[in-house]
Amino acid sequence: MTSRALNALGEAECVIGNKFYIDLVMPMLAGKEVVLSSMGQEVDRAKKALALAEDQIVAMVSGGDAGIYGMASIVLEVAERSGAAVPVEVIPGITAAVSAASRLGSPLSGDYVTMSLSDLLTPWEEIERRLDLAFQMRVPVVLYNPRSRGRPNNLAAAVAIARRHLSDATPVGVVRNAYRVGEEQLITTLGEFEDHFASVDMHSTVFIGGEETRIWRDEGDERGIITPRGYHRKYVY
After folding, report:
1. pLDDT tens-digit map of 147-169
2. What are the structural domains of the chain?
3. Whole-model pTM?
């Protein structure tokens, strides 16, 4: 979380959010009204937050950055459609692509694409179309919501699309629970990634490298992924 997010939690009189994320910040919520919600109740959660904000300071908790696959858009949409007059501040956080990338080295040094493999709100056919276009760019692609019990095959389908455009030696990184208890990291290649699908879940962020991405210092424990920024084309170092 950013310091502004921490301050906002301190200022709030009421905190509302998905139980998973509320549990992560529960030690900071003593003396506050806490409203728990679950997956699939995002619209109702946004309506509730706006209603509560009529007469108190409300904080909506979301994972990572609220504006990237988070709650910011639905809160703003509901406010717009309902005509709610309460002020809304979107507070930045650190999205999974950024936090997890730091655990791998520097896999996103330049242009990259983020994609969610969840087809709850976006048709799978559209996700496949976007994936094909993304991998044709040969820049790193970050996959959110890569694999769940209800969607066990979406990751395999995405990797199959990647292999149409990238070599099997392309580095792949997975970070699970970045900066949280139980953090795990994996560095492998596109050709060998299938052997590790079982360890990937909804708490994982998957990085599929681009055409210049390489494994950095492949020695012992000091191992990571780097996508060169391009300095080698201009400078001698």
Report:
1. 999 898 999 999 999 999 999 99
2. 3-82 (3.40.1010.10), 96-229 (3.30.950.10)
3. 0.93
